[in-house]
Amino acid sequence: MQNEAILNQLGYAPNDALLAQIERIAKNTAGYEKIIKHIMDLHEALKVNGAYVAMSNSEDVFKIKLDSPSTQMLHEAIEKIERFRSRYKVELDKVEGKPTYYIVGFRA
Question: Which domain does 69 fall in, by range?
Answer without folding.
Answer: 3-106
